[in-house]
Structures are given as structure tokens and as C-alpha cells.
Specification:
Layout: H1 5-10, E1 26-32, E2 35-40, E3 54-61, E4 63-68, E5 71-76, E6 80-83, E7 89-92, E8 99-105
Length: about 110
């Protein structure tokens, strides 16, 4: 299996939704078992909420800050950031070119 960052970015933005009024800037591109991987390139504001699985972001373009339950972490190209399942989080102060891979895996509720 292979996914292309370039191909995923070419498909953006996907049509707007109630949750993502400026258009959807994320797409899952790989799936196997409990694992799914996608590309996330928010524009304007990040409206995401907690996810039911553990996840890791791999920053590939730009920079920003990830807020995880009120804790702020600067994120730059080459960084990997873990977010446990069911944890409130979102990106803020991200550059216009911000892009990250995101990988979800494991059981609902996260690994213990």
C-alpha cells in the first residue's frame, strides 16, 4: 500500500460541511486493520475534536501549535506528536502551508 501526499493535497478542499464551513482539509488515504492514515492541512481554523483512537501527527510542512487539553506544544517540520484517544486537541497559529500526516490505530478508547 502507498499513499501520495501530493495526490491527497490535490483533492483539497473537499466540500464544506456544518463542522468544516471553509471546506474539508483532511482525508484518510490508507487503511489496514485498526490503522488508518491521512493528510490534514487545516485552513483558517481547526475544528477537530477528540478521536476515539490513539493518534500521531507527523508534521511535513509549515509550523503551528498543538493544544492538547490546554497544554501548548510548538510543531515544526520533522516533529511527531502523540495524542491519546478521547483527548481534546486542535492546532492553532498554524502557517498557511501547514500539512501533517495523521495516523490512527488501536482499539476504541486507546491502548492502556
Amino acid at each position: 500500500m502507498k499513499a501520495s501526499l501530493t495526490d491527497a493535497l490535490r483533492s483539497f478542499p473537499l466540500p464544506p460541511t456544518d463542522k468544516w464551513p471553509q471546506g474539508v482539509w483532511h482525508s484518510l488515504v490508507l487503511r489496514h486493520g485498526s490503522m488508518s492514515a491521512g493528510v490534514f492541512a487545516p485552513k483558517g481554523q481547526d475544528f477537530q475534536g477528540p478521536h476515539t483512537q490513539d493518534e500521531v501527527y507527523f508534521i511535513v510542512r509549515g509550523s503551528g501549535e498543538l493544544l492538547v487539553e490546554g497544554q501548548r506544544a510548538a510543531c515544526h517540520v520533522g516533529d511527531a506528536v502523540f495524542v491519546p484517544a478521547n483527548t481534546a486537541h486542535h492546532f492553532e497559529n498554524f502557517s498557511d502551508d501547514f500539512v501533517t500526516w495523521v495516523v490512527f490505530w488501536g482499539p476504541e478508547g486507546g491502548e492502556k
